[in-house]
Every structure is written in structure tokens, then in C-alpha cells.
């Protein structure tokens, strides 16, 4: 009986020791994130399912670490560091396979954080699709007293495993099924991300120290919806300005064509008048010539009327 109690105590002691002092490693869609405390020893590792010929790591600053040992044959290589803020960032490892060719590359994100931290501080979602924002304790599987979130443009809310997709808060926020507050998870799934969800979120969790520990998560939307209000305003004014310029150019061209058309009509009228003037002069000259030219003479018979009372004249004529 005593041995059983001792064995149970030993398991409990080891469990607490590992949970309290061990950093946490998360794999989200192939992206590995390590949450660690400042000055904590961290084992950064890469693994494959095939033997390695060589393996090396690249520090966020560009510094390189090489690995050698029996682990290469088992597809495992690692480097141990005492993590500081300078070590935070994106690490990468390059792995050489037994056959020559393209290397295998893996990426690890190391974050030196406080008690509670966002697993992914920058999240990109698809408009109209669901997305999960997640914070967790950085000192092992430590239970949370509560979990809460502050959206960028909505009322803050708290949630737990009792808030499911069937009874979401505000009709859109619920706790993911595969998370647990007892394991130190503070997460929320947003159903159908919209414009008002984009921005800086705050996750907060209460621990046994009586304090609330927070971290920030920037949520963005892929594609057109990532445009900020300033960008949209700038584009709008740009389109309006371009339309105004095109309108002014159209008016100038129209006026120019109108003026050119009037000038051409005036020139045509002048030509027609010039062409008509000689014609009128010729016609007038012909009329004048007709009026001044001599007319052919006509013979008009002379009729003499004599009075019937002059009988002597009649008899003489007979």
C-alpha cells in the first residue's frame, strides 16, 4: 500500500514538474510554434520518417547551427538553446536525404512569452468562413480560471466548453470542441468571418495567481477584404479624380471639334459665295447685254384714215 502511494505521488510530482516548467509545442496546419519563457532551455527539433545525411538550423538572425549524431539515422535532429527575446522568430532547418537532390525544409516559430500567449499572433481568414483564434498557457497544462476575448468592434465575452456551435454567443462565437480550459486553452471559433471581425483581438485568461494574463491576435481577411478603410477611400478618390479628368478632356475635345466644325462651315460658306459671285456677275452681264444690244427692225403698215365727207378725194382716187 505504501509503495502504491509513493508511486502515485511520484507520478503526480513528475506530472506537475513537467507541466509547470516545460515549454509547449503546437502544430497547427503544419506550422510548428513553441511557447517558452525567458531563459528557459528549449529543444528545437526537426523530424522526418527517413534517415538523414545531414541536418542544420538557421537562427532568426541568420546564425547557423549544425547537428551530427546517431539521431540522423532515425530521422531526428535537434538543437538546445537557452531561449531569450533575441531567439524569438522564425527558425528553419534544412535536411539532406540519403539520395542527393532537393533538401527538406521545415519551419519552427519560437515565441518567448509570458504566462499566456497567442499560438498564432497573426491569423488570416477567408471571408464567410469560420476561423479559430487561440491562446494557451506557456508553462504547461495549467488550468484556467476563466477565458475571455475582446473583439475589435464588438462587446467582450467569456466562454468555456459549455458554449458550443449549437448555442454560440451573439450567434457567432463558440468554444472549439478539441480545446479544454483545464489544459490551459483559451480559444474561440468565429462562425463566418465578416468585416467587423477584422482587427486586433485580445485574449485574456485568469490563473491561480489572481491575475489576468493577456495577449494580442491580429485577424485579417484574405483577398479584397484585407483592404483598409484608408485604402478603400484612397482608391475611391482616385477613381473619382480619374473620372473628372476624363470628363474635362472629353469636354475640351468636344469644344475643339465644335469650333473646328464651325470654322470649316464658315470656310465652306465663303467658298460657295465666292463661287456664286462670278456666276451672278455673268448672269447680270448677259442681262445688260440683252438690254443694250440693238433689236431687229419690224415693218409696221401705215394706215391712213380719211374722212368720208371728203368726196372729191374719193372720186379722185377712183
UniProtKB/TrEMBL annotation:
| SUPFAM superfamilies to which the protein is assigned, alphabetical | Immunoglobulin (SSF48726)
Q: Which residues cross the membrane?
A: 234-254
Q: Does the keyword Transmembrane apply?
A: yes
Q: Where is the signal peptide?
A: 1-22
Disordered: annotated segments = 281-318
Q: Where is the composition biased (Polar residues)?
A: 281-296, 304-318
Please tell me whether the keyword Transmembrane helix is annotated for this protein. yes
Which part of the chain is the Immunoglobulin domain?
Answer: 31-113, 120-222
Alphabetical keyword list = Membrane, Signal, Transmembrane, Transmembrane helix
Which protein are we looking at? Immunoglobulin domain-containing protein
Organism name: Diatraea saccharalis
Amino acid at each position: 500500500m505504501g509503495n502504491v502511494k509513493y508511486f502515485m505521488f511520484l507520478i503526480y510530482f513528475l506530472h506537475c514538474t513537467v507541466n509547470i516548467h516545460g515549454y509547449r509545442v503546437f502544430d497547427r496546419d503544419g506550422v510548428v510554434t513553441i511557447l517558452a519563457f525567458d531563459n528557459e532551455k528549449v529543444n528545437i527539433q526537426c523530424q522526418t520518417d527517413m534517415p538523414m545525411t545531414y541536418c542544420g538550423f538557421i537562427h532568426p538572425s541568420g546564425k547557423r547551427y549544425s547537428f551530427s549524431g546517431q539521431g540522423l539515422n532515425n530521422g531526428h535532429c535537434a538543437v538546445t538553446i537557452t531561449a531569450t527575446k533575441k531567439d524569438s522568430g522564425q527558425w528553419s532547418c534544412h535536411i539532406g536525404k540519403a539520395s542527393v537532390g532537393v533538401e527538406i525544409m521545415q519551419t519552427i516559430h519560437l515565441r518567448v512569452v509570458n504566462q499566456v500567449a497567442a499560438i498564432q499572433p497573426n491569423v488570416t481568414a477567408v471571408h464567410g468562413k469560420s476561423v479559430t483564434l487561440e491562446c494557451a498557457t506557456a508553462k504547461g497544462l495549467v488550468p484556467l480560471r476563466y477565458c475571455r476575448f475582446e473583439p475589435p468592434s464588438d462587446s467582450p465575452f467569456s466562454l468555456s466548453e459549455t458554449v458550443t456551435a449549437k448555442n454560440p454567443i451573439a450567434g457567432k462565437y463558440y468554444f472549439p470542441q478539441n480545446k479544454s480550459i483545464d489544459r490551459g486553452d483559451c480559444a474561440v471559433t468565429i462562425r463566418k468571418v465578416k468585416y467587423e471581425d477584422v482587427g486586433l483581438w485580445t485574449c485574456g485568461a485568469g490563473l491561480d495567481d489572481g491575475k489576468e494574463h493577456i495577449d494580442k491576435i491580429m485577424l485579417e481577411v484574405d483577398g479584397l477584404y484585407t483592404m483598409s478603410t484608408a485604402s478603400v477611400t484612397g482608391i475611391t478618390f482616385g477613381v473619382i479624380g480619374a473620372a473628372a479628368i476624363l470628363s474635362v478632356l472629353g469636354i475640351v475635345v468636344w469644344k475643339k471639334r465644335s469650333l473646328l466644325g464651325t470654322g470649316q462651315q464658315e470656310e465652306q460658306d465663303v467658298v460657295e459665295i465666292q463661287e456664286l459671285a462670278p456666276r451672278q456677275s455673268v448672269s447680270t452681264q448677259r442681262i445688260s447685254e440683252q438690254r443694250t444690244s440693238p433689236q431687229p427692225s419690224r415693218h409696221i403698215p401705215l394706215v391712213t384714215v380719211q374722212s368720208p365727207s371728203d368726196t372729191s378725194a374719193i372720186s379722185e382716187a377712183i
